[in-house]
């Protein structure tokens, strides 16, 4: 039986608001609202703590290290366990950063940060927040890819839940070790088959689940002790891992077919039974499974796939900002997607759904504004069985292209005359000068996004695109690039960083306890992100806001998702504020922050799992 929908709130406009700034500098603590201090996820006031002595120091979400106050040291039996000088968090951050800088390379820095994370959550996240531009590539791509490849050799401490396909009958038990039904808000799960562009990494894929959850906390305040990273170990087809005596995963070829589907379904059903309020985020599944799994579970549970939907959402937000600058309506837009894999078709889907939502067209009609090009050239219906399920909606009728060249990108560009060109092909330098200039000859402000990662796989360098179009192109990339110059003028290159989008979507789903994540909720999230584009006020600025402002961005996205969930009758939390400003404060109050909160001593007898230090750890369920 479905839980009752939340009290309906008034419909809010989701149109662009160029006056909304993503550069608000006030801290979340400055914006706390006393009215919401009694919420279950409130982050105001003291925290109950039933731990004492070394047990307290060993619990990362309580541990303050040398920052425990004199009063706390006495009350929690820490005297003699710490140096005498009480330090501030700022002093701790300085010390940690100095230590970080001594690490000789990126992987060593990543390992240092991993060690810090399991000691002290607040210090870990505050250090990253203070140096986010510098550290983002260390805690996530590309360095996290190196850590994953070396997982079994760098292994020190298990992180997350390891489920394996040889023990399907133990999934419910093993997953159940992580708490009671109210203890988990956000689950990231992977099967390790297609990790960060480096392929099958088997059990090492657990680190992508860990990394994604770090981003949800860093970027959107998901409570780090209320999230769960999971890896579904189905074996691996990576010969190097199978032949490595230190490899920690199942040493068998990757299982596929019915046995695999039963395993995935067993996990999903167990997760829903054990943690009915949790939002499930699928990550880095293989091409044959990612879309198929998402499509299977989307109609019945709140779930998300960042490779499919996250990439699509952030790219669509950049497109919307580009349309604003170029004064083009969505119903008139023509889009070519070069590279029709998981990311390319995911982007196509988000663009199609947005066109349908904005214009009232059917999805089938909206799809006709999108042309997808892959290895065989333009996707056409006669490709038949060679088309994936995700590609079929975009395959053009053969009659439409009779007598026309469709085997290469340039021919398609000449025929379609697109306003938007998106690259997800991993084919470096595919957007040649001839192709870019052909596109620019038909469009005043061509929107060109070479999104393939890493940088060496980009379809074109932003500087070249800018030069070839004489500064007219609106550019976004999949990796960070410095501003480019033309004619003495500087142009900011936007980065399509999923981290500006998926954490806010997840936060909105968690706080509303929505029953589903719908297309309309995703479109609302995209509009909220696009509304914060610097290009709305200055066309030479980036199409997307900078990652340094990501927590504020996430608030706006979460609010948009929550409003839409309420409007569709899917939110199950009651008393969600109707007023826009009040809703923002309601959201901020429930976002975890990297700051030390006072501890309040309580007895273990009636303490919560959190107070007993059992959140985020297995084996502590009551």
UniProtKB/TrEMBL annotation:
Map out region (Disordered) in residue numbers. 1-39
* Binding annotation for (S)-malate: 453, 497
| UniProt cofactor(s) | Mn(2+); Mg(2+)
Q: Which residues form the active site?
A: 140, 212
Reaction catalysed by this chain?
oxaloacetate + H(+) = pyruvate + CO2; (S)-malate + NAD(+) = pyruvate + CO2 + NADH
Q: Which residue ranges does UniProt annotate as crossing the membrane?
A: none
Residues reported in the UniProt entry to bind a divalent metal cation? 283-284, 307
Q: How is the cofactor bound?
A: Divalent metal cations. Prefers magnesium or manganese.
Any idea where the Malic enzyme N-terminal domain is? 117-298
| A Pfam short name | malic
Q: Which UniProt keywords apply?
A: Metal-binding, NAD, Oxidoreductase
One term of GO molecular function: malate dehydrogenase (decarboxylating) (NAD+) activity
Q: Supply one GO BP term.
A: malate metabolic process
* PANTHER family xref list: MALIC ENZYME-RELATED (PTHR23406), NAD-DEPENDENT MALIC ENZYME, MITOCHONDRIAL (PTHR23406:SF34)
Family classification:
Belongs to the malic enzymes family.
Q: Can you name this protein?
A: Malic enzyme
Q: Which organism is it from?
A: Oidiodendron maius (strain Zn)
Q: Print the organism lineage.
A: Eukaryota, Fungi, Dikarya, Ascomycota, Pezizomycotina
